[in-house]
Amino acid sequence: MLEDLSRCEKVVGAKQVKRALNSGRAKRVFMALDADPRLLQPLVQQAVRQQVPLEQASSMRALGEACGIAVGAAIAALV
């Protein structure tokens, strides 16, 4: 699951994930369980509407590390 983020092309962050979903490039969306639900809700709803698989990460820190960034990430997507 999260290992795919280190090997594949990805986008990180709400704005980038929204762009990937809008353009139809998102293949799988990863969300952190401790992220702000108000931030995630519209993106999760859009992913569900587009039938993009959703995965959960235990924390923003774990998701950020899986993406190879030094800070936490609320949401990311494989493209």
Give the secondary structure arrangement, pairings included.
Blueprint: H1 3-7, E1 10-12, H2 14-23, E2 28-32, H3 37-49, E3 54-57, H4 60-67, E4 75-78
Parallel strand pairs: 2-3
Antiparallel strand pairs: 1-4, 2-4
Molecular structure report:
It is built from four helices and four strands; from the N terminus they run H-E-H-E-H-E-H-E. The chain has 79 residues and is an alpha+beta fold. A four-stranded mixed sheet has the order 1-4-2-3, with helices on both faces. Helix 2 (14-23) runs parallel beside helix 3 (37-49). The two termini are 14 Å apart. The relative contact order is 0.32.
Structural class: alpha+beta
Largest sheet: 4 strands, mixed
Low-confidence stretches: none
The strands making up the biggest β-sheet line up spatially as 1-4-2-3
Number of helices: 4
Strand content: 15-25%
Q: Portion of residues in helices? A: 40-55%
Mind telling me the C-alpha Rg? 11 Å
SSE string, helices as H and strands as E? HEHEHEHE
Number of E-type strands: 4
Question: Briefly, what is this?
Answer:
The protein has 79 residues and is an alpha+beta fold. Helix content is 46%, strand content 20%.
Keywords:
single chain, alpha+beta, four-stranded mixed sheet, 4 helices
